[in-house]
């Protein structure tokens, strides 16, 4: 027996993994997945949205395993998602059938069906609440509030845009009920289609989508203030039609946030030169869970990609879609830690060559 | 007029429209608002234009901004697609017929080997961060040259020709003055000895003395190398100095063409008359 | 949770194999594919790993290397994942392996017919440095318009007196497509030319697969008077094995502060050392 391979790498990796797993436990109590599911609702919403994977139990498990690290939790969900066969697409669903839990319009004071504030952190004061330091076993008592009588059925609320359509300020686009392109089954090829853009945006990293949407309206793109026509949060029923014969099956409700952002735009069909009419165009956002900031930013980016301003990064589909995915951006940035000995040796060779020639 | 077989570039019925057109403006006799259909807002940037460029001559195209002269140049250099028309290069034996119809690969080859382009804005013609010598070599590389020594020799030759000191050849055009940038563009455009040179408002925005130098250079090149040129300008003074023949464009159409001196002395069209009298 | 053989579901594997066949049919052309997320991070070899997982069968013998070493942490990590989800046999010997996944190196032992080398690719687009838009680079490939790649090298010569591209040095494949060979050192570029095995390159984050089929011409870009040059180890000898003419790691002796060199392909060095030991014992 002569020389054998050194097994240093395998040992080091094993120990590193053990150390990492121990860290979570060494300082006290283990948290229940169920507690994460019930207490960390907003975190779960973000993780499900970025993972494009709607399952609160899996998300809660991923969050626990990731020790609350968003990028890790999303990554765990996405990796698991890759192992699951995707069997059906849902049938076309109409958000007018959403069971609305929250619904506000920034454009009209009174909207048909009324403003429904619902549950939102918008008007909480951001003061740390010492009372939360104490945790009780079992469900806490909830604070009582008075129900307001309400005349509409919550799953039949009209949309604000319907009112503008009646006024002639909005022209409904022709419906496109083709099966959308699925970027998880076929890579985007540029120029992208709208369904590819919407899918990439709704899967986008919350922070990245928000930042780019912010840049677009602050001073680098349309640089104008969109009006939120309607922000809805609610339960959206989803159906599948396995045999393609209109025999639909209800598979469940999904909590979603939907945004119609109103953007004033020229009426392209108006023929009076110099006296064109302004029309409302829509930027659209739809994300899993209650993720209002992300949904609004998505609607801004949807609009900026549909109505590009030349030379602006946030109007360039390649710039936006290539860089907003959490798993892709964090993966590439973090890979810089990996050994690059061989390539660096190659670079050194070139640098020494340059130096040698100068001397 | 020179004989027909001296034509190096020939354009027939060239048109470029932006917009789909409608039932009104598809009628040729329908009156447009300048170059735009008042009904559907389709812009007819260039309309049914025909002309020939003869070997060794400088052809001027003069007109105000929006007259279609720059759009015309962009189509000749394939920067923009034509809506319709015929484009022939009789001296280029590698292509037959309408060169608007050849593959994009072939168009790139024609751009590299048959044509040279000097833009008003040097950013369009140069890589501002690369050294001047690399900028000149770009055209040679694109047409398949793989010999660094040969290409740097050629670059030196043309840098000298356009009066740029060779000790500045490794500098990037972004460090140069506007006049020098145009000289680098001219050197690049000539590097392949193309039979045809296109110059689009090349002295616009330069100081008068610098303008005069660049114009002198263009004349000298035409004298020494016998390159055929198309010169686009809004400035009749430049046209008068450089061009053998001139076309006057207005609202996308050629309204007058002929020997430059003749147009200057005896303009026929009302617009040309205004143009001529305003400078004399 | 229970996993499918080789992690991915069979539909996904089939799609990846189809795209791989297309890549083999058009050498050097980047075929887009619907890259899946894997349990290791994007940018950490998921393109290569998806090729490996979609191709691997129970009879395969797997070798995984990173930076020339079977024991590099990333190589161990990838090998563990493939083994945990497939249970296939592993080897460190290049000649024994049927499937080799590698990052940044082509092994020193030449590939044989029916061996597959999978390379991990961070940036599959050789023109990206000169053109940031994908739709434009796609058109440039379509027109075989590669002056951008040469201009970059030309400018390096003007600036530094020689070409300064180090690893991931662009190659022309089958006289048609300019291709990024992945960040292998220039030393390994010539190994691709008319090699006898199948080389597959996968970029997970960028969602592209490209290939160099067996017996395909692969030429590193260069000028007539500035030929392609590999890294210079001419006067270097491996301190461990006495080998020369191989790619080396540069190391520092902590005691003497002296720089010394060791063969980068560790399994190759081991094989050579053992051969020598056997010969020695035989004498």
TrEMBL record, chain A:
InterPro entries listed in its UniProt record: PhnI
Supply the alphabetized keyword list.
Answer: Transferase
Q: Name one GO biological process term.
A: organic phosphonate metabolic process
The terms under GO molecular function for this entry are: alpha-D-ribose 1-methylphosphonate 5-triphosphate synthase activity
The top EC class, named as a word, is transferase
The Enzyme Commission number assigned here is: 2.7.8.37
Domain of life the protein comes from: Bacteria
- According to UniProt, the name of this protein is Alpha-D-ribose 1-methylphosphonate 5-triphosphate synthase subunit PhnI
TrEMBL record, chain B:
Which Pfam families does this entry report, sorted A to Z? ABC_tran (PF00005)
Q: Which GO terms describe its biological process?
A: organic phosphonate catabolic process
* Alphabetically ordered keywords of this record: ATP-binding, Nucleotide-binding
GO terms for molecular function, please?
ATP binding; ATP hydrolysis activity
Locate the ABC transporter domain: which residues?
Answer: 9-276
Q: Which protein is depicted?
A: Phosphonate transport system ATP-binding protein
The organism of origin for this protein: Jeotgalicoccus coquinae
Automatic annotation (TrEMBL), chain C:
Keyword hit for Transmembrane: no
Q: Which InterPro entries match?
A: PhnJ
**Molecular function (GO) terms listed?**
4 iron, 4 sulfur cluster binding; alpha-D-ribose 1-methylphosphonate 5-phosphate C-P-lyase activity
The EC number(s) given in the record are 4.7.1.1
One biological-process term from Gene Ontology? Answer: organic phosphonate catabolic process
Which keywords does this Swiss-Prot/TrEMBL entry list?
Answer: Lyase
Question: What name has this protein been given in UniProt?
Answer: Alpha-D-ribose 1-methylphosphonate 5-phosphate C-P lyase
What is the species of this protein? Jeotgalicoccus coquinae
């Amino acid at each position: 027996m002569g020389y054998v391979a050194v097994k240093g790498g395998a040992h080091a990796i094993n120990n590193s993994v053990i150390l990492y797993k121990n860290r979570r436990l060494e300082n006290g109590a283990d948290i229940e997945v169920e507690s994460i599911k019930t207490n960390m609702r907003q975190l779960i919403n973000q993780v499900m949205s970025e993972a494009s994977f709607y399952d609160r139990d899996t998300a809660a498990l991923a969050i626990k395993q990731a020790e609350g690290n968003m990028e890790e939790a999303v990554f765990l969900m996405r990796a698991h998602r890759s192992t699951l066969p995707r069997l059906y697409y849902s049938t076309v669903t109409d958000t007018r059938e959403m069971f609305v839990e929250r619904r506000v319009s920034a454009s009209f004071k009174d909207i048909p069906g009324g403003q429904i504030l619902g549950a939102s952190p918008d008007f909480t004061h951001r003061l740390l609440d010492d009372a939360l330091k104490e945790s009780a076993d079992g469900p806490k008592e909830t604070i009582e509030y008075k129900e307001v009588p309400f005349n509409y059925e919550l799953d039949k609320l009209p949309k604000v845009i319907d009112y503008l359509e009646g006024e002639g300020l909005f022209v409904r686009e022709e419906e496109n009920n083709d099966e959308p392109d699925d970027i998880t089954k076929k890579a985007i090829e540029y120029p992208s289609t709208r369904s590819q853009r919407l899918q990439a945006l709704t899967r986008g990293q919350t922070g990245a989508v928000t930042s780019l949407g912010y840049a677009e309206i602050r001073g680098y793109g349309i640089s104008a203030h969109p009006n939120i026509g309607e922000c809805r949060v609610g339960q959206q029923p989803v159906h599948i039609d396995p045999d393609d014969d209109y025999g639909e099956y209800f598979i469940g409700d999904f909590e979603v946030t939907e945004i119609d952002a109103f953007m004033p735009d020229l009426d392209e069909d108006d023929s009076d030169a110099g006296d064109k009419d302004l029309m409302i165009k829509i930027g659209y956002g739809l994300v899993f869970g209650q993720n209002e900031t992300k949904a609004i930013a998505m609607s801004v980016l949807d609009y900026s990609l549909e109505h590009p301003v030349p030379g602006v990064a946030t109007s360039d589909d390649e710039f936006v879609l290539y860089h907003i995915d959490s798993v892709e951006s964090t993966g590439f940035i973090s890979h810089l830690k990996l050994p690059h000995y061989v390539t660096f040796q190659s670079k050194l060779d070139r640098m020494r060559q340059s130096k040698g020639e100068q001397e | 007029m020179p004989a027909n077989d001296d034509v190096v570039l020939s354009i027939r019925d060239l048109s470029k429209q932006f917009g789909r057109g409608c039932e009104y403006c598809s009628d040729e006799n329908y009156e447009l608002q300048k170059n735009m259909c008042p009904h559907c807002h389709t812009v007819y940037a260039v309309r049914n234009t025909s002309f020939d460029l003869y070997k060794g001559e400088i052809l001027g195209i003069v007109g105000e901004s929006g007259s279609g002269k720059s759009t015309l140049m962009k189509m000749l250099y394939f920067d923009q697609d034509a809506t319709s028309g015929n484009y022939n290069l009789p001296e280029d034996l590698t292509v037959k017929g309408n060169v608007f119809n050849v593959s994009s690969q072939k168009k790139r080859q024609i751009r590299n080997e048959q044509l040279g382009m000097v833009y008003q804005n040097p950013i369009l013609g140069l890589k501002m961060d690369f050294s001047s010598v690399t900028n000149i070599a770009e055209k040679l590389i694109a047409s398949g040259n793989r010999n660094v020594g040969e290409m740097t020799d050629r670059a030196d030759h043309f840098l000298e020709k356009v009066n740029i000191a060779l000790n500045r050849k490794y500098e990037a055009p972004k460090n140069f003055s506007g006049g020098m940038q145009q000289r680098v563009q001219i050197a690049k455009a000539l590097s392949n000895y193309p039979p045809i040179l296109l110059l689009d408002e090349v002295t616009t925005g330069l100081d008068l003395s610098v303008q005069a130098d660049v114009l002198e250079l263009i004349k000298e090149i035409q004298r020494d190398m016998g390159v055929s040129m198309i010169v686009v300008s809004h400035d009749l003074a430049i046209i008068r100095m450089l061009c053998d023949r001139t076309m006057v464009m207005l609202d996308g159409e050629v309204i007058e063409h002929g020997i430059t001196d003749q147009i200057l002395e005896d303009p026929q069209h009302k617009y040309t008359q205004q143009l001529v009298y305003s400078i004399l | 949770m229970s996993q499918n053989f080789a992690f991915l579901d069979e539909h996904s594997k089939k799609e990846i194999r189809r795209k791989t066949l297309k890549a083999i049919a058009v050498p050097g052309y980047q075929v887009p594919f619907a890259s899946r997320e894997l349990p290791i991070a994007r940018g950490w070899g998921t393109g290569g790993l998806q090729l490996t997982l979609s191709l691997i069968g129970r009879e395969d013998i797997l070798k995984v290397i990173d930076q020339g070493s079977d024991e590099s942490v990333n190589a161990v990590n990838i090998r563990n994942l493939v083994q945990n989800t497939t249970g296939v046999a592993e080897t460190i010997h290049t000649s024994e392996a049927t499937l080799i996944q590698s990052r940044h190196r082509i092994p020193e032992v030449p590939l044989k017919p029916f061996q597959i080398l999978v390379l991990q690719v961070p940036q599959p687009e050789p023109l990206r440095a000169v053109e940031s838009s994908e739709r434009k680079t796609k058109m440039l490939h379509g027109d075989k318009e590669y002056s951008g790649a040469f201009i970059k090298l030309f400018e390096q010569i003007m600036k530094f007196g020689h070409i300064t591209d180090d690893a991931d040095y662009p190659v022309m494949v089958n006289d048609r497509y300019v291709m990024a060979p992945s960040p292998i050192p220039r030393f390994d570029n010539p190994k691709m030319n008319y090699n006898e095995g199948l080389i597959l390159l996968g970029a997970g984050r960028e969602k592209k697969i490209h290939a160099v089929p067996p017996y395909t011409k692969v030429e590193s870009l260069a000028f007539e008077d500035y030929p392609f040059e590999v890294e210079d180890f001419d006067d270097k000898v491996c301190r461990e094995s006495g080998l020369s003419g191989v790619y080396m790691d540069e190391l520092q002796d902590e005691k003497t502060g002296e720089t010394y060199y060791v063969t980068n392909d560790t399994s190759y060095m081991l094989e050579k050392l053992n051969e020598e030991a056997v010969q020695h014992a035989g004498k």
